[in-house]
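Let's practice the habit of predicting before peeking. Look at the sequence and jot down your guess about where helices and strands might fall. Then scroll down.
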Amino acid sequence: MGKRKTSISEKTPIAGPEAFQHLLNAEEYQKLIDSIEQPLSPSIRVNPLKVDVQQSIERWAGYYGWKTRSVPYCATGWWIDHGNTPVSQTWEHRLGDYYIQDAASMLPAELFDFPLPPEAQVLDMAASPGGKTTHLASRLNDHALIIANDSSTSRLTALRLILQNWGTVNVGITHYPGEQLGGLCPAVFDAVLLDAPCSMQGLRSAESHPIRAITPREQSDLAMRQQRLLESAVLATREGGQIVYSTCTLAPLEDEGVVDAVLKRFGSSLQLEDVSYRLPVEAQGISRDGDTIYLDEVRKTARIWPHVFGTAGFFAARFTRLQTTRSEPGIALTKTKGLPGTILTDRQIKVICDQWMNDFGFDLDKVLEEYHLGLVQQGREIIAVPFAILQNILPLTILSCGLPMAEINPDGYLPFHEWLTRFESQFHTSRYNIPIDQVTSWLRGSDIPGKPAGSFSNRQLVLTMDERGRYLGLAKILKDRLKNLLPRRVVANW
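Done guessing? Here is the structure:
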């Protein structure tokens, strides 16, 4: 049998707004054209795990000359329409006080009905680079367990670093094809987010979402994979649980088409929720694309055109799992690989708690109890790990989890930078104010020469601050200088 011939339509790339002209009337299409010719304002999402959202955005606007607008469907999201300092070049950004993210991408995590109880389990099925995972953690106040999964090995390091910079403690990272998770964990999760790999036809180019041409054949293959992923997400969700599906494309085949197919696949066991009340203006999905007609209820989805909010194009839908069946397949697993390292005993934990209370006025025991954490020693490092992972309640191999807490050295237990940026406000003593004329040098990694002023003991660890009250990193008091303990990755290129 000869090779199948490829038609011209399967080879011809499609890109640009003309691909969607038939979905809009003439007036709306012109608004779309006009909007994508305008520069896109950067937007940030503030980290409520570390700072007060409203106070911080007002303070930063004053520091950096920012003109801000709130994102109407995200309480922690803000556009920066003007500024003397780019959002990517502030100390607060390096500390993880906010995340740079297109405002459209802030929608999916906002569609869930949160909070959930602390014992809940949430899955981010295609998590890297981690922006939406950090958003989930913020909305859950970092109490419920989140499994951040990604199928790409090359993207796992970036995912881990972004989660640590955000300061999440109740997150575990896994590495599975998303299509397998419904079989590996049938009816396990209280909420599942699938921000699916897509053709990225959002009509606004960004470094993370570049516009590229795609053939109809490629798009059809993508849509089939998206459908398999969404079916897996539904199977992984417990009865009564929530599923959010999103893409950064406006292509109906990957949006309403996937929702339509999955609704037909699951029938009465799956309900599509109306998300219109989450948005201040109408942004309904479509029920028809040319000759293709979708279920009328597909209009309950959210289709974000660039000219509606001044964002990139986006699509999102939310489902509720109404019932599960015993016939749903599971996959037999070998024994789950445990986390490397040794779980600390209560007596060992007490030693750290006593030292940190004495040295910093920090109540470690209170934090471990509030966030349901245990401690694991890996070499010279102490990691705060969710009890839900230590108890091995999920049939998954966890590659990394929790938040680095301390390093064991001759001076005792040295708090890690990631732990300090998350819980700095609870370290009540041992603080040192860096003189204003030395802050820039300090943030570039330099020590401050001369004996530090104040009643400090030699080799004492202190948290440094500036005149604005910003945390500037951990330091050690020495007889002839203040030794800078900021990690090199933080001060590089500053």
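How did you do? Residues 43-100 form a domain with the Alpha-Beta Plaits fold (CATH 3.30.70.1170).
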